[in-house]
Amino acid sequence: MGHVANIPGGVDIELKVFGSPGPVYSPLPKARQQQAVAFLGENAFVTPTWLIDEQIARLLSPSDVAQRLSNQQTRVLRTMISSDKLLRLLDQQTRFGAEAYTVEQLLDDVEKLVLTEITSKKPVDFYRRSLQRAYVQSLIDKSAKPSDSGGDVFAAFMRGPSTYNTDIRAISRARLKAIQKKLQGAKGGDASTVAHFEDLDFQIRQALDPKG
């Protein structure tokens, strides 16, 4: 799944020697990137609960089994929409126009896979709640001013490139507003879902208007 998650925003690299024609770096075809997102939707974001064999799990750990699987899902999601990938897509759409897979198209495709329960009025289970929180938090992080790392080079490196002074900030804020609007009209199927939607709404509201 990690390999597939690296396809959106990816490039083909063809090393050259002096005088060889053609580019070294070429963006992956838009269709291939979209196919990768669809594949992850079917095989990672639709929770592969078959990976949990209870006969084995109960021999190895008293708890944390479901959380481990959830962590793997959110790790794939964060890889697919990482800041460096979004910045690369932004560069590609600026340079190549309609041929490129845009940031908006990627986020549209991801939201169709991750946020479906907001409009379907179906209960959101443990795994999907974690996935939705991770997506919303990723947008919040991309729209927020990066905190001062206090000169800690390692912390700055692990945080990745800043998107604060780029179009990604505006896109992320617009996405958060659109999600918030959907949440305010959503009706959860059970108490956990209702609480989850209210929490997402609160987190977005705090991010967009921390003084409100």
Topology summary:
Elements: H1 2-5, E1 11-13, E2 25-27, H2 30-45, H3 54-60, H4 65-80, H5 83-96, H6 103-114, H7 116-120, H8 126-143, H9 153-159, H10 167-184, H11 191-208
Helix pairs in contact: 2-4, 2-6, 4-8, 8-10, 8-11, 10-11
What would you note in describing this structure?
There is one protein chain. Helix content is 64%, strand content 3%. It is mainly α. It has one domain. It has a two-stranded antiparallel sheet with strand order 1-2. The mean pLDDT is 90.
What key phrases describe this protein's structure?
2 strands, two-stranded antiparallel sheet, 212 residues, mainly alpha
Shape: globular
Structural class: mainly alpha
Give, in order, the helices and strands. HEEHHHHHHHHHH
Low-confidence sequence ranges: none
Task: Give the tally of structural domains.
Answer: 1
Q: Strand-residue fraction?
A: under 5%
Give the overall average pLDDT.
90
Task: Kindly report the spatial arrangement of strands forming the biggest sheet.
Answer: 1-2
Work out the number of β strands.
Answer: 2
CA-to-CA gap between the ends? 40 Å
Radius of gyration: 19 Å
| Helix percentage range | 55-70%
The main β sheet shows up as: 2 strands, antiparallel
Put simply, the count of helices is 11
